[in-house]
Amino acid sequence: MTKNELAKEVAVSEKLHLSTTFQAVDGILRVIKETLAKGEPVIIRGFGTFQPIECKERPARDFKTGKPVVISAHKSAKFRVSKDFIKSLNAEAGKEVTV
Questions:
Q1: pLDDT of residue 93
Q2: Which of the two ends of the chain, N or C, has the fewest CB atoms closer than 10 A to its terminal CB?
Q3: Is 29 helix (H, G, I), strand (E, B) or coil?
């Protein structure tokens, strides 16, 4: 599902104007990006946690040439799914999971 499809689905299910929904989705994503850029996590109860991480410099290999290269240190983000979300996914599939 793309961002546009998500906005359209929310607009239909919540009976909102499409333009308002696009603005809301864009706003939510912008706030998540800005918060992670500050180095703070974004916790959405019942869904999961976006956590900023620091990646260290490391050696790698260029796939095309086979020559060694160095990947510089950078920031990234990881997402950890909440236990409630995992349970609901598996409940829909008819499976019982202990988390």
A1: 66
A2: N
A3: helix
